[in-house]
Amino acid sequence: MPRLPLLALLAAAPGLVAAPDDPKPEELVLVRQGTLPVIVSAPHGGRKPAPGVPERAGTGVAQFATVLDANTDLLAETFAAELEKRLNGKPWVVVARFGRKYLDANRPRELAYESDKAAPHYDAYHDALTAACRAVKKASGRGLLLDLHGQGETKDAVYRGTRDGQTVTLLVDRFGRAAVTGKRSVLGHLERSGYTVLPGCADEKAKEEPRFRGGHVVGTYGSHTGYGIDAVQLEFGTSLRADKDRCLKTARDLADAVAVFHDEYLKDPGK
Q1: What is the value of pTM for the model shown?
Q2: Does the pLDDT of residue 219 top 90, yes or no?
Q3: DSSP state, residue 182
Q4: Lower CB density within 10 Å: C or N end of the chain?
């Protein structure tokens, strides 16, 4: 049986009927197919309401949050465009347009939403990520997923989230810890370019900050699971995504870092 395109599958799924003027679930998730073994996810930058979905109350949910990670959607799209310039290929892109106050795609289903009407939007996001991970693994055997977030704890810093190395298991097994924190790693290159990376790349024994050590996205698609994709959550401080100009600089620097990582660890499938 031929595989239907992702959007066709979503449109055909039950329960996705909306009012004529309401956006369909797949219209509240930006999905761009790629040609590179790189996937970028941004679940918390959306501002649009999910039709018919009330705002979440968060009763009994630990670390409940509804605020958006401002400009992380812009950062993700700008980064994708800049990486295409450097590698002459497109990363896979999955960006939420729906607001976090209605559902949170970086939570397991039972904690992500409180109304069943939010389920199709949640599924649209994760169906797209699943499809991207499977396509990258099939084409390249391995890949890198960057889950972009924002934090206000340390405005000029980037926090690393790999669940203390769990979500990059295959990367470390193949190439050692240098692939995560060395000079040709994404984080190592950012640090060498003047960014404050927390924990610092030189301290290999340092534990990741518990609040930023990796959420549902990297926990679901990281290489400790069956997808074979190494996943890193990046929490950018407010100063690094303050406006369009700052997002452009951060996106360019991140694209430089990922291009270096790609050429060292992803370019040669037989390596």
Answers
A1: 0.91
A2: yes
A3: S
A4: N
